[in-house]
Amino acid sequence: MAGDPAVLEADRISLRFGGVRALTDVSFSVGRGEIFSIIGPNGAGKTSMVNCISGRYRPTEGRILLEGRDVTGLRPNRRAALGIGRTFQNLALFGHMSVLDNIMVGRHHLLRTGFLRGMVYWVGGAQTEELAHRREVEEIIDFLEIQHVRKATAGTLSYGLRKRVELARAVALKPRLILLDEPMAGMNLEEKEDMARFIVDLNEEWGMTVLMIEHDMGVVMDISHRVMVLDFGRKIAEGTPEAVLADPHVRRAYLGEADDLVEGEPVPA
């Protein structure tokens, strides 16, 4: 809504590992209800930025704000409790657990806590809460069309289905912001189309704000509201997909085109 703070603000983020600069003075914001994508060549700093947002890394300089609250010093579990969910480029499921149990793990931040409160709540209340969480998890399972594998052991599933289960677990957190790190990596065309559809539906039907890293330019340009481009840890462009794709700096850095591009020349397929 107008006047609301951005869901996410990255304010002059820099990240160094010894003498290596992974990010340099990167600022951007993600508005409520957006699909915001970060693209760039390998080693551009995309995953480093997501790790700064999720709390896996703490930036050397700068701040991360979630709906106006400075979360820079908070650990990943505290940020998750405040509503930052994420998936990983490399799958992070519990392979020995069922699909249903993997997704239920995403609900643990929403469970009531505290010993005394728990003792009082347990009588007549715990079973009701458990049923409510199960119902919400089943809704997510239906939404992502994984009913047929809900009782299967996660480690036995195909790669595409495991990616979908990981998305389900992140959604189960009921996040204000969901971070998707290469959600289509390693998928075939049909699996990519399904995943893109689920991301758009989560955004449009469930009102979920999405920050996504993705190498598939076709997907990025089709479903993103805005795109930011990183190159060697610096922001070189930000805007609508069309404006970013037409930017000569982006075409030079990301698509490897020469400096003497003619304005308006079509981008190679």
Automatic annotation (TrEMBL):
<dbReference type="InterPro" id="IPR027417">
    <property type="entry name" value="P-loop_NTPase"/>
</dbReference>
<protein>
    <submittedName>
        <fullName>ABC transporter ATP-binding protein</fullName>
    </submittedName>
</protein>
<keyword id="KW-0547">Nucleotide-binding</keyword>
<dbReference type="InterPro" id="IPR003439">
    <property type="entry name" value="ABC_transporter-like_ATP-bd"/>
</dbReference>
<keyword id="KW-0067">ATP-binding</keyword>
<dbReference type="InterPro" id="IPR032823">
    <property type="entry name" value="BCA_ABC_TP_C"/>
</dbReference>
<dbReference type="InterPro" id="IPR051120">
    <property type="entry name" value="ABC_AA/LPS_Transport"/>
</dbReference>
<dbReference type="Pfam" id="PF00005">
    <property type="entry name" value="ABC_tran"/>
</dbReference>
<keyword id="KW-0813">Transport</keyword>
<dbReference type="Pfam" id="PF12399">
    <property type="entry name" value="BCA_ABC_TP_C"/>
</dbReference>
<feature type="domain" description="ABC transporter">
    <location>
        <begin position="8"/>
        <end position="257"/>
    </location>
</feature>
<dbReference type="GO" id="GO:0005524">
    <property type="term" value="F:ATP binding"/>
</dbReference>
<dbReference type="InterPro" id="IPR003593">
    <property type="entry name" value="AAA+_ATPase"/>
</dbReference>
